[in-house]
Structure formats: structure tokens, C-alpha cells
From TrEMBL:
Source species of the chain: Desulfosarcina widdelii
Cofactor: Mg(2+)
Name of the molecule in the record: Ribose-phosphate pyrophosphokinase
Subcellular locations according to the entry: Cytoplasm
Superkingdom as given in the UniProt entry: Bacteria
UniProt binding sites for D-ribose 5-phosphate: 198, 222, 226-230
Cofactor binding, per record: Binds 2 Mg(2+) ions per subunit.
GO BP, sorted A to Z: 5-phosphoribose 1-diphosphate biosynthetic process; purine nucleotide biosynthetic process; ribonucleoside monophosphate biosynthetic process
Amino acid sequence: MTPKNGSLCLFAGNSNPDLARKIAEYLNMSLCGAVVKRFSDGEIQIEIDENVRTKDVFVIQSTCDPVNDNLVELLLMVDALKRASARRITAVIPYYGYARQDKKVAPRVPISAKLVADLLTTAGATRVITMDLHAGQIQGFFNIPVDNLYAAPVLLDYIKANFNKDLVIVSPDAGGVERARAFAKRLNAGLAIVDKRRSAPNKAQAMAVIGDVKDKIVIIQDDMIDTAGTLTEAVNAIVERGAREVHACCAHPVLSGPAVDRINASPITSIVCTDTIPLNEKAATCNKIKVLSISNLVGEAIIRSYTGDSVTSLFV
């Protein structure tokens, strides 16, 4: 659908230009002009090259690596649009950084997910469209509407097309059980859980597999893969229990640090992820990783938000 009267403007930051272009193609529109410059000391400067007065503006920017640069770029762009008299400003954040810091896990630590929500609201965002928040309750950190989309429809279509029987969906930890159960129900598959003990951030050791995976095709389902420590420990535990094949799917391929090396050394067969985050150079060369696009899903959410239509069907 093409917006009428040019009252919808689509901008993109530098975090994920390929996804932004695909979303623009789905909407049959062009990305509006904006220039991102840097002073010699690294400060970011934004210049908006379009008239946005009284218009509905959508800014596409994942707060992925480099997280702080992409976050500040988003905040400055939102502020520039607010000062240019945009009517509504929607921050489209396919990957919401700092989402893992959503509660106090020790004394004297910040709740960073809440701070980022406050920064976006103060900058001038009037709505947020995001995908697969690490914790659903982060929506409550905002005092503006939040549409938390799910990559499940895209991932489920792929799984249904490529896996037929003897399928078990596995949650790599207790926190992901609800998500894995929803996948298993829609695929009419079995469900299992890996009991994980974490000794420090980004360090995990799988202890036990709860459920039957022997001679099964296993798909480990998670919202993100960061250093792949949790994933590879889970894969090893599942293989030891006699699984025939082990695959994984996730929405956000963070894949930082030793992730790709761990994946290559692991007996995992494949990893299916989405393009909420662009693959880094090393991950792009890994033949175990397949990327599916969520551009149509996000594009549909944008147009429905613009027209005032329901987005409920996109949450399934």
C-alpha cells in the first residue's frame, strides 16, 4: 500500500540499511533524506533533508553493535524530527538494545532497559514498534504505546516447510519455556527444557535435559544468540541424550565475541535467524547460519499504525 498525500515519511539510521531498504520496498516508497555526520572527536550530528512538518514519521534503527553509537544516533534523529514539527514520531527498533538489563540482579546496578525507554520518550518518540523483546514487561517501561511484534510467523513458516516429523522444540533455559511451548503447540511437536546454570554474564553451563530428545530432530528456540555459550552448551547436552539432529532458531543474531567460532566447532546442523540485526563479517561467512527477512512484517506494522488499522494479527 502506498501512503497518500506524502504524509508518511520513512527515515533510517545506519544500523541496518539493508532491512530499511526492504521495508521501504514493501511500502512502495523511498527512504527520506537524512545525513549523519561526525565531528572530529566522534560526536554525532544529524541533518534532516526533508520537510516533515505535521507528518507521520517512522525512524528505522536497531540498537545493535555498536550499541551506544546507534542508540545516540536514534535519539538525535528523533529529537531533530521533533524540533522540525513532525506530528507523530514512531521509533521502529527491530532489535531493542539493553533489553537484558530489565531488573536489578544485584545491589547498586541500573535498570538500563527502563533508562533507554525514558531517553526515547524524552527525545520525542510518540510510539515504538519493536520485535521480540527479551522480556515482555519492558513494554511497561514506556509511557507511550509499544507494539512488540514477533518473528514467530516467519520462523514457523520456515520450520513447517523444512521439518516434518519427530520434531522437538527445546528451550535453552527456564526463562524461554513459554516461547518454546508456543512454538511446539503450533508445530504439534514435543517440548523439552535445558536446565542451565549461569556463573557469570555470557557464561553458561548446561546441566540436564528435561524431556525426550532421543532419535528426534531438535530445534532450540530462543529470542537471541549472543556469544552462543548457552546455545552450544545446550547442543552438547542434547546430542549426549541421543538427538538425531540439532538446529536452532532465533529472532536476533547478536553473535558477538567467540559466537561464530563456537558455532563452527559445535555439532549443531543449522541456525535460522532474522535480519533484525545485520550479520557481522565473520557470521556472514558461516554456512550454518541462514537469515530470513522480517521486512514485510515490520512494513505491515508501519502501514497499519499509520492508517489506524489493528495490528493484533501481527502479534501471533
